[in-house]
Amino acid sequence: MATPHIELQDKSLIAKTVLMPGDPLRAKFIAETYLKDVVQINGVRNMLGYTGTYKGRRISVMGSGMGMPSIGIYSYELFKFYDVENIIRIGSAGAYTDKLNLYDVVIAKNCWSESSYAKTMGVSGRKKLSATKKLNTKLKNTAKRLGIPMTEGTIHSSDVFYRINGDEYKDIYEKHGALCVEMESFALFANALATGKNAACILTISDSLVTHEATSAEERQNAFTKMMEIALNTKL
């Protein structure tokens, strides 16, 4: 049956693996560019979702929205009520180090956050949560096979996009080793723990807090294809 945020009645129309970009238009781009025999599985609040096939394998893609409360709702409903086993977040991130350049691909080994999401969920009081190791291993092996360089490390999941202290990222980088910042993975990893499912996060560097370089909104929607191809070509 449908949930409050996903209108699909038949859960069999959602694949066991869901790719989850923040932007629903990125989900639409992936479905139209890479998938065959596509059916739309959600349109509630314009949070677009699709199921199709890629090289003969069924796969779904659905937007998560921005921030932990949003991905927290959608990923939990997918895990809990639609029998999804794997969610791979494919998103954008801001670099905390000049060792990362625009368009570089990062895979989160774990994420550190100030958020109370995991504690409020009753999952963990920890401020650092890990991705599913076996899922990360498969994604890294795919990236190697495709010849796509990928940096693995700690990332920062933040509740705040605009910080009054713009240099605070330097302390976070020094104290927690966070290579870059995004706003969703901590909640996704918490939900995977809560439901006994698998979660991973692959990011493309969209801007740099160090060099102040940045990509455009259109580029973030359409040009971050390497992380998409890694996720799509990983057999689960």
Automatic annotation (TrEMBL):
Catalytic function, reaction form: uridine + phosphate = alpha-D-ribose 1-phosphate + uracil
Coiled coil: none
Domain of life: Bacteria
MF term (GO), any: uridine phosphorylase activity
Pfam family, one: PNP_UDP_1
EC number in record: 2.4.2.3
Keywords in alphabetical order: Glycosyltransferase, Transferase
A GO CC annotation given for this chain: cytosol
Annotated Nucleoside phosphorylase domain residues: 17-226
GO BP: uridine catabolic process
PANTHER family found in the cross-reference section: FI09636P-RELATED, URIDINE PHOSPHORYLASE
Similarity annotation: Belongs to the PNP/UDP phosphorylase family.
Protein name (record): Uridine phosphorylase
Organism: Acholeplasma laidlawii
